[in-house]
Amino acid sequence: MGPVAGCRDPGVRVTDDLDQRTQRTPAEFLKLIASTTVTSPTPDLNAALGDAAWLAGLIRNSDQVLMECYAPLFSHVRNRLGDTVLPATARALPGLATVATRAGNRLYVAVVNSGTQKVDVPVELKGLVKGVRKHATATVLTGPSRTTTNTLTDPAVLVPRTSTVTGAAAAFTSTLPPLSVTVLELVLT
């Protein structure tokens, strides 16, 4: 496994190798305690992007990961992922890591854009019986640079922002900000 594109944090690993595994390959126990950066005691946006790419890969390849350990996850889960992993093809685009999941009538598409340019990502939802509501929710964590960080005296520099996305459909385009983690929540009709 190699470093996430654009990320300097040596503790962050991308899960591209897991994408190449077969069902006959033994499952693994993978761990990442947390990213560390020179901005200690709080990691910067670069570390958050790397961690998000790592977790997207673990979820996407959950059939190949026997166990995983990620300490910060325990304090930040906000019901933003489903319980069934779906195929996601946007991960083939350079600089992006993706995972798609479903829980009941909700679809979640999480995309990490580790690049410094905004990216228009085509979203194509295949196999839907009906469709999705035209209004979706986007939760985005982004910042002006990789070194942007929350501090103990200013802990809200980087916070997720939620907005409404109009025009969601079985096929639509979502524009992702640079240096961002975006979770799209779509409701099935």
Concise synopsis of the structure shown:
This protein has 189 residues and is mainly beta. The protein has helices at residues 16-19, 45-60, 73-76, and strands at residues 28-31, 65-69, 84-86, 96-103, 106-113, 119-124, 135-142, 161-166, 171-176, 180-187. The chain has a 6-stranded antiparallel sheet with strand order 3-4-5-10-7-8, with helices on one face. Strands 1-2 form a two-stranded parallel ribbon.
Description of the molecule:
The protein is built from 3 helices and 10 strands. The N and C termini lie far apart (39 Å). Mean pLDDT is 75; it is low at 1-14 and 73-77. It has a 6-stranded antiparallel beta sheet, with helices on one face. The chain is globular. By secondary structure, the protein is mainly beta.
CATH architecture: Sandwich
Strand content: 25-35%
Runs in which pLDDT lies below 50 for 5 or more consecutive residues are 1-14, 73-77
CATH class: Mainly Beta
For the report, how would you describe the main beta sheet? 6 strands, antiparallel
Query: What is the number of domains?
Result: 1
Terminal CA distance reads 39 Å
